[in-house]
Amino acid sequence: MKLHHNPASPFVRTVMVLAHELNIADQIEEIDTGVFLPDRVNEGVASDNPLGKIPALITDHGSVLYDSRVICEYLCHHAGNKELLPDEPVSRFRILTLQSLAIGLMDAGVSRRYETAVRPEEKRWPEWVARQHVRMEAGLDDLENNWADELASANVGSIAAAAVLAYFDFRYGDIDWRDARPRLAAFYQDFAQRPSMVATQLPA
Ligand code: BEZ
């Protein structure tokens, strides 16, 4: 398998942490996007994913899969694993919703990052940045208050949650998301020590 990859992307990291948890990371060849910017087409990625977004996975059968949700489901299927994404419907849809919550937080954090770090200063829209901040805070509160059972084990939802918390530390070191969220802080402290997280560190 080949994966269009950028080490800073929390969406990519989610996929790679899962691959390590499934013990299949060595089956994935990473295709580095190089500098990845939102205002231009990355031809290498776009040749496989018309949306030009990462991650995109090329399977050994030559199919292209995106986005990270579909890739996670595929990797569990490929590895024959029913623990990280169980069939039992109550758990399954809770875990998938947790995954969507974490992906929504990634969307807010990455969009805000592009607006504040990439977009020319005179074109920035402070109200839009503030809206992303509100979204991030509300999502973090929800992670703190409503997902203890799902965060208690490794699964496709808790992996995505850990990936977005790591991204917030990486890009938003000034936001103390741990403050007043002791359960989430404890979850991340523990999860960040898993070999799958250690093996997929963000760039320095
Ligand atoms: C980042 O540098 O924050 C980033 C890079 C690629 C995808 C998403 C985020």
Features:
Glutaredoxin; 4 strands; binds benzoic acid; 55% helix; 204 residues; Glutathione S-transferase Yfyf (Class Pi), Chain A, domain 2; 6% strand; globular; 4-stranded mixed beta sheet; alpha+beta
Number of strands: 4
Low-confidence stretches: none
Number of distinct helices: 9
CATH architecture of the largest domain: Up-down Bundle
Shape: globular
Q: The CATH topology of the largest domain, please?
A: Glutathione S-transferase Yfyf (Class Pi), Chain A, domain 2
Beta content comes to 5-15%
Small molecules held by this entry: benzoic acid
Radius of gyration (CA) equals: 17 Å
Report the oligomer: single chain
Structural class: alpha+beta
Largest sheet: 4 strands, mixed
CATH class of the largest domain: Mainly Alpha
Provide a compact summary of the structure:
The protein has 204 residues and is an alpha+beta fold.
Structural account:
With about 200 residues, the chain is an alpha+beta fold. The protein folds into two domains: about 1-80, 3-Layer(aba) Sandwich (Glutaredoxin); about 90-195, Glutathione S-transferase Yfyf (Class Pi), Chain A, domain 2, CATH 1.20.1050. It has helices at about 10-20, 45, 70-80, 90-120, 125-145, 150, 155-170, 180-190, 195-200, and strands spanning about 1-5, 30, 55-60, 65. It has a four-stranded mixed beta sheet. The relative contact order is 0.15. The structure holds benzoic acid.
